[in-house]
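Changelog-adjacent note: as of this version, every example in the card shows the full chain rather than a window. The one below runs 326 residues end to end.
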Amino acid sequence: MRRILFGLILLAIVALIPALVGFKRETPVQPIEEEPIAVEVSQGPTFPDIPIPDWRLDIIEPVDDALMPVGAMTFVNLTDGVILLDKNGEDRVYPASTTKLMTALLAYEQASLAGELDNVLIEIKPSTLDIPWDSHIAHLAVGDKLSVRQALYATLLESGNDAANALAEYVSGSTSAFVELMNERVDTLGLTGTHFMNAHGYTDPDHYTTAHDMAKIAYVFGQYPELIEIAGTYEYEALFSDKDGNGKRRWWYHLGSAVNERSIHYSDLVTATKTGYTDESGYTMVFLMEEADKQYALVTMRAKSGQTFPTMRAVEQIIFGRSIEE
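Full-length structure tokens:
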């Protein structure tokens, strides 16, 4: 009985302790609502308003396959908006490295708008060199630092896939984001036969264009005298630095011999050009030409070896009255 009484008293004392000393109950902590943090989003360049007038067909004469044997071509008077010669101009073709006209266009527009053309903003990263093993390159290395203008020369003269990727990363932060930008520009320009999958032109089933669409890209490219100057230069000396800050020197030479005065393919009518080749595309080339203050574009696609320049000479003969020997 005493044990039971003692137990009851002990329980009563335990029950009274919280009331006597105060029981500190843990109050739930309310989460602190933080102010939203503004995160800068990488934006592509604002596309300049460069409308392309509707081009009309005024074919001077049917294309003679013996004179112009390339698989597809078009020749346009850009000043007047007239297609003068055409062969399969709406056929879907692989553009190869003529793709780089769009890459250079977007990079130039961003750099010139921001006043960054001669700023050292290009840095070669491991991702920059993520290109197919047989790509044409400008021999850039991880850590190299260049100006935007230098990267444009490396892209348009040497046709470096490494340089094209470098421009893409400068504009959009990644090549995949840049490809989205390329296709946005395609839509803006109303190019219904073109879609891009990379910045350099390596063959992909979903990377294609038409001769007509490429002539329209050339039209926009040709609105910028600095781009014409770059793409019309035969040789360029680049001085830049490597990852350790040591100076590097490179000479880059244009793969397009129409701007090389020492070449049998030289033409004083050609102000700028861009070459391209893959096994799947064949030889592709874009020529910007000028005569009597009018600008022209010649686009040749799906050419076999030895077909591009005879086609160019035939165009010069038919349109400008040049002899084949000139």
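Structural remarks: Helices lie at 2-21, 100-114, 148-156, 161-172, 175-189, 211-221, 225-231, 308-320.
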